[in-house]
Amino acid sequence: MRTLFSNGVITIRPFDPEDVPGFFSAVRSSAEILGRWMPWCHAQYSIEEAKAWLTTCQTEWAQGTSYPFLVVEPDSNEVLGSVDINQINRDHNFGNIGYWVSSSHTGRGIATSAVKMVAHFGFYEAGFTRLEIVALAENIASRRVAEKAGAKLECIARNRLLGWGKAHEAAVYSFIPTDIAG
Known about the structure:
The protein is an alpha+beta fold. The protein has a single domain (5-179), classed as Gcn5-related N-acetyltransferase (GNAT) (Aminopeptidase). It contains four helices and eight strands, in the order ββααβββαβαββ. It has helices spanning 20-34, 47-63, 110-124, 140-149; strands at residues 5-6, 11-13, 67-72, 79-89, 94-101, 130-136, 152-163, 166-175. It has an eight-stranded mixed β-sheet with strand order 1-2-3-4-5-6-8-7, with helices on both faces. The longest helix has 17 residues, at 47-63. The relative contact order is 0.14. The model has no long low-confidence stretch (mean pLDDT 91).
C-alpha cells in the first residue's frame, strides 16, 4: 500500500518510475524561476537527472533518511511539484520540509496544502517532534507558504544555507505537532 494524502485538489504520494517524464517536464518548464532558489534546478536539467532523482528518492525512503513525495493533480496525475522531509536528525527527532511547485501552478495554494499534508505525515506517521522550513531570506514566496501553512518564524539565520558558491541568510520556521491537527 502506498502512502498518500489527498484533499481532492492535490495528492501527495511517493515517486514511481512512471513519474520520471512528468517530473522532468515540470522541472524544465519551471527552471527559470526555480533555479533562482534551488541550485539543483537549471535550464539544462536532463531526463537522466530526473531518473537519478527517482532512484535517490526510493533509496532514501527505504532507508528512512528522507521522505520525498510527488505532488500531483488527483484525477489526471499531472505533476504539480514535490514536497519532502529531508535532512533528518534522528538524535533530536526533527527534519526539514522542502517544496516546490511548477511555475504554471503557483499562486493556487498547492504548496501550502502539500506542506500541511507532509507535516501531518511527519508528525503522525513518521513520529517527528519538530519540523523546520529553511528558506532563503529573500525568497518571499516560499516564506509566505511556510506562514500560510502555520509554521512559526524563529529567526533569520546568518550563513544558514549554501548555494551558488556562497553562504546565504535564511528564514528558519518550525512546526511542532500541536501546530498541525491530528
